[in-house]
Specification:
The structure is a single chain. It contains nine helices and 17 strands. The strands form four sheets. The chain has an eight-stranded antiparallel beta sheet. With about 325 residues, it is an alpha+beta fold. Among the domains are: about 160 residues, Uridine Diphospho-n-acetylenolpyruvylglucosamine Reductase, domain 3 (2-Layer Sandwich); about 50 residues, no CATH class. The chain is about 25% helix and about 25% strand.
């Protein structure tokens, strides 16, 4: 399916939602009985010298990563499941655990082409790194859950791929580590990821007070969520979560806390804790009907105005966001 065919399918459907690999299908609210459509897949254009790549939104991250690796480059979208599609990752807006060094998802998107509810193909942004004209539509689309348009094609910013990476585990402070790619904390240990050349990693040795370890696994369970708080509130939030029936791991310096529980009630309790610490929780998996946001979001009025401007008939991903 090309963009023209995608536009025709969206225009003909009474309600519609873009479908990728369904690796993040449970994130947010259920999508109901909307017609599912799929975007094009594959590489449209790759300019290694410019470090930009344009792909169909249904391209799987694993395929994208393999192509970039051949040229010593990467685009650190870092989905939890490598089989996730690029469009699905961007639509859900879930940044990977290397956000501390590489930035959030929206920083990697230069241009988007998406289909509106009435079947129009709209372009936002531009295929150059220094594109600064017009409204920043790409950043608006990232994390919109397909409620503003069905992503069809994206242009991404690439960067050199680190030649080596290592994880270390310890209980001491990691503040002396120069530009770590990720610092995770599970309430007991800190896990630090460093990236660079082999010589850089060997020359610096291990992190003081730490020992080499395998990459840590994010908490898993029947019910999962992602809490967002101010970075300075992570420690207090972690101590509060430790008193409940929840497994968790926090991204230090970012303010994202990954949580997993065995019961729906325990996940719902995390929402309350998140709100008490000035944050909110997005449900990632488990618990049909749990909105995942807990208390109403403070920006709902603005979100409703944007939704009305982009999708006045309300046919795109109805109910996915609690508007």
């Amino acid at each position: 399916m090309d963009l023209t065919e995608l536009a025709a399918a969206v225009a003909a459907a009474p309600t519609v939602v873009g479908e990728g690999a369904r690796t993040q299908w449970e994130v947010g609210n259920p999508v109901g009985d909307a017609v599912t459509v799929r975007a094009p897949a594959g590489v449209v254009r790759y300019e290694p010298a410019d470090m930009t790549i344009t792909v169909g939104a249904a391209t799987r991250f694993a395929q994208l990563d393999a192509i970039l690796a051949e040229h010593g480059q990467e685009c650190p979208l870092d989905p939890r499941d490598p089989s996730a599609t690029v469009g699905g990752v961007l639509a859900c807006g879930l940044s990977g655990i290397r956000r501390l060094r590489h930035g959030p998802l929206r920083d990697h998107v230069l241009e988007v082409r998406f289909v509106t509810g009435d079947g129009r193909i709209v372009k936002g942004g531009g295929p150059t790194v220094k594109n600064v004209t017009g409204y920043d539509v790409p950043r608006l689309i990232v994390g919109s859950f397909g409620t503003l348009g069905v992503l069809g094609q994206v242009t991404l910013r690439c960067r050199p791929r680190a030649r080596a990476a290592s994880w270390s585990r310890g209980t001491a402070s990691a503040t002396d580590v120069y530009r770590p790619a990720s610092v995770l904390w599970d309430g007991e240990h800190l896990f630090v990821r460093r990236e660079g050349t082999e010589a850089e990693l060997e020359g610096a040795g291990t992190v003081p007070g730490f020992e080499p370890c395998d990459a840590p696994a994010l908490p898993d369970g029947a019910h999962r969520g992602r809490v967002s708080v101010e970075p300075g509130a992570v420690c207090a939030l972690g101590r509060a979560l430790a008193r409940g029936d929840v497994r968790w791991c926090a991204e230090i310096g970012v303010g994202t806390v990954h949580v997993a529980t065995d019961t729906l009630d325990a996940l719902a309790a995390v929402r309350v804790v998140a709100h008490a610490h000035g944050g909110w929780m997005l449900r990632e998996a488990g618990g049909d009907g749990l909105d995942g946001f807990g208390c109403p979001l403070p920006n709902v009025p603005l979100m409703r105005r944007i939704k009305a401007a982009f999708d006045p008939d309300g046919k795109l991903a109805p109910g996915r966001l609690p508007l």
